[in-house]
Every structure is written in C-alpha cells, then in structure tokens.
Amino acid sequence: MPTLDSSNSGNIAIVVILLIIACSIIPGSAKHIKTTPQVFKSRFKGQVACYSCVSFTNEFNPRKMKNFKFNLSTTGLFQTLDKGGVLVPKHVRQCPETYFEHFPKYHRMDVVFCSNTDMEPGACVKFKGNYDGNQYVYRNCWNNMWIEKRPYVRQLSERCYNDELVQNFVATINNKICFCEDDLCNSSHSIFLSSDLFFIILFVTFLNSR
C-alpha cells in the first residue's frame, strides 16, 4: 500500500486547508454536494427529517432591516410561491441561518418528517432566490412543499442547481436549489461542508495513488 512521507505531512495539511477555502468560493450551476453512497439511512427508516421554514435574509440582519419593507415584500413573496404551486411553510426570522441543526427549537422552526421509500422517494430541499431585490431562503421536504403532490426523481439527490430548475415553478431570480436525503441536511452549512469533503477525499485519493 502506498504511504506518505511524514516530512510532507505539514505541506499536505496546508494544501488541504487551502483546498477547503477554494471549494467554498467556487460557483457551479450543478454540482455534487456529497459523495456518500446512494443508500441513505433515511431510506432504511422510510422517512427523512427536514427543516421547514421561509424568510428573507434581511430579517436576520438588523443592519438591513431599516430599508426592508417587511409586510409588502413578505406578502408578495408568499403570493409568488403560492402561484407556483409551492406550499408556504412557517415564517421564521432565523430561517436563513440554521447552524445549530441539533437544536431546531432554538430557532423556533419546524422539523417535518416525510416519506423516503422505494415506492415514495423523498428528500430535503433548500432553495434561495431573490424577490423584489431581497434574497429569501426556503426549506422543506419535497413531499411537503407542493400544493398538488409531485413525484420526486432520485437522480436530483445530492446536487444543487441554479436558475433553470427553480424558475420552472417559481418566478424569482438568482435561484439555487439543493436536494439531499440525510436528516436535517437542508441546514445552512451541511451542504457546503459536504462539497468540501468531496474535494478533500478526491485530493487524498490522488495522493495515495502516486
């Protein structure tokens, strides 16, 4: 089995750190967000737990609240989502940031449980968009987000997509939607962390193959 010289371990650590930083700023219209196998724990359990909430990012930033027309913008956004056939979940000011994913009550947001089986596949969803000049964040599970139920295509899992897919049902701009199947995976950081881990694993695999 190939081994790494201990004298190079420091340089490798630095490269890995730089790689993490680079991964966090590289944009992409569609990219893998995990490298886990296509069999998820939620499939064995038959259900997946997801955050469910919606709000504008300005609501979480006091500096931007001064010029934010809350009632007008929120009403307009909810009407736009409803027109696209999307159910409006609980409005929670903290929805843009869910770093403490193990303490959902701290953020006063809902956690919903949706089916994820061979007969009825499902996933957690997170998407961001821009409405009337303000960015919003929407989190839900696929089976809960539609007024009229739509089948989920598992090929979407562990990927993020930009405008094209979202604009098929929501008339907002600068959209990005992500799908995942692990419990509470539609939090703020888990998607991006998984992307970093993907590149780290790829890098280590490359080193070990030399």
End-to-end Cα distance, whole Å, is 11 Å
Cα-based radius of gyration, to the nearest Å = 19 Å
Poorly predicted sequence stretches spanning 5 or more consecutive residues: 15-37, 191-209
Rounded mean pLDDT is 72
Provide the spatial order of strands within the biggest beta sheet.
1-6-7-4-5-2-3
Tell me what portion of residues adopts beta-strand conformation: 15-25%
Global structural class: alpha+beta
Instruction: Say how many strands there are.
Output: 7
Overall form: globular
Number of domains: 1
Q: What oligomeric assembly is this protein in?
A: single chain
Number of helices: 5
Helical fraction equals 25-40%
Query: What composes the largest sheet?
Result: 7 strands, antiparallel
Query: Which series of helices and strands comes N to C?
Result: HEHEHEEEEHEH
GO biological process, one term: sleep
Pfam family, one: QVR
Keywords: Glycoprotein, Membrane, Signal, Transmembrane, Transmembrane helix
InterPro entries: QVR-like
